[in-house]
Amino acid sequence: MAHRAGYGSRVRVRLLDLVACPRCGSGPFALTATQEEGPEIVEGRLVCPGCGATFPIHGGIPRLLPSPAAVSDDAQRTVDRFGKQWNDFDFIGPHYEKQFLGWISPNTSESFRDQIVLEGGCGKGRHSALMARWGAKDVLAIDLGSAVEAAYRNTRSHPNVHVIQADLFHLPVKEKSVDTAFSVGVLHHTPDPRGAFDQLVSRVRPGGRAIAWVYGAENNEWITRYVDPIRQRVTSHLPHRALRSLATLPAMAVYAASRGIYAPLQKGPLGVVGKRLFYQAYMTHLAAFPFPEVHSIVHDHLTPALAEYIKRGDFEAWFADLENATIGWHNENSWRGTGYVKKP
Fold it and tell me: What is the DSSP code string of 210-273?
């Protein structure tokens, strides 16, 4: 549908060609709009032709959620906490493009032009907005929690982004219907990272791509040994505002060290010393970010109920059934991968 000035990332009728019931898989939905703005639906409901389940459209976002019993307590607590984080740290910065391209390499901004793209866990919508700018035909930006409100705000100017509240394990997207499915920084915060990845792959057409970036187990032993127990027992239970304040001090230390020590020691004759510093690649990478972003990153590591650090061998196994898979080491503390769904 044509985009009109003043209209944003609300529900468009063409979305019905791509979505399916998260409970029984049927489609297309019957649509009833109770509030429209031009060609876009702001309020209404979707009714499944198979099981009869009804799903609301509220605030321009279809809420295609599974039954509450289908989501574990820890998973719900994780998305609720991230929802509060992304609605608070909802800024979009120019540094996100370079950061995102690092996570999805060897893919480039040209890799998504004219494609239907599915993002599993869109957070505040920063990556979906980039995909839209890069010329994707449609971007299905999915998140389970209230982060969809931030994603909606941050993608309102992009008529090719469709924000949907949904669960990765009950995706309301037709199988083999998208050209690319990707997830950055989300799969390791689910109860079953491999299972969530497989769900994304099942929605990709033959010849299409699956892309993922996850925390690595390698080189992060200091986090799993010392930081993770604190996250599990203390910080993941703190109220959001209290944790935001608490995260300020370590964020200031990381910000000061990355800019005052790591970045200067990468240049000239001191480069030999800089290369030997603890966590050198990642800390140098952080030196390019403004303080609010560093604060958000520190908060991000402390807030979730669920966090898993993935070994390279396990991550490679995710891509075993895909073709031309490329697995890469990113900043010496995380894994990125791209693979293609086999054609018949």
Answer: EEEEEEBSTT-HHIIIIIHHHHHHTGGGS-HHHHHHHHHHHHHHHHHHIIIIITGGGSGGGHHH
CB neighbour burial string for 50-85, b if at least 16 within 10 angstroms, e if fewer: eeebebbbeebbbbbbbeeeebeeebebbbbbbbbb
By the 10 Å C-beta count (0-12 exposed, 13-18 middle, 19+ buried), 280 is classed as: middle
- The residues spanned by each domain of the chain are 74-216+316-340, 221-302
Cα separation, 341 vs 209, in Å, equals: 6
User: CA-CA distance, 122 to 141, in Å (whole number)?
Assistant: 5
Task: Say if residues 291 and 251 touch (Cβ distance below 8 Å).
Answer: yes
Distance CA 25, CA 171 (A): 9
CA distance 304 to 185: 12
Q: What is the pLDDT of residues 276-335, one digit of tens each?
A: 899 999 999 999 999 999 999 999 999 999 999 999 999 999 999 999 999 999 999 999
Q: State residue 274's pLDDT score.
A: 76
| 3-class DSSP assignment, residue 193 | helix
> Is residue 3 over pLDDT 70?
no
Q: Scanning the structure block, which residue is given the tokens 């990707």?
A: 182
- Report residue 261 as tokens: 């020590």
**pLDDT tier at 266, thresholds 50, 70, 90:** confident
Buried b or exposed e, range 264-273, using 16+ CB within 10 angstroms: ebeeeeeeee
Q: 């075993």: which residue's tokens?
A: 320
Question: What is the model's pTM?
Answer: 0.93
| Residues above pLDDT 90, as percent of the chain | 85
Of residues 172, 227, 231, 163, the one with CA closest to residue 203: 172
Tokens of 101: 């391209």
What CATH number should be reported for the domain whose range is 74-216+316-340?
3.40.50.150
Question: What Å distances lie between residue 263 and 15, 100, 176, 335, CA to CA?
Answer: 46, 20, 45, 23
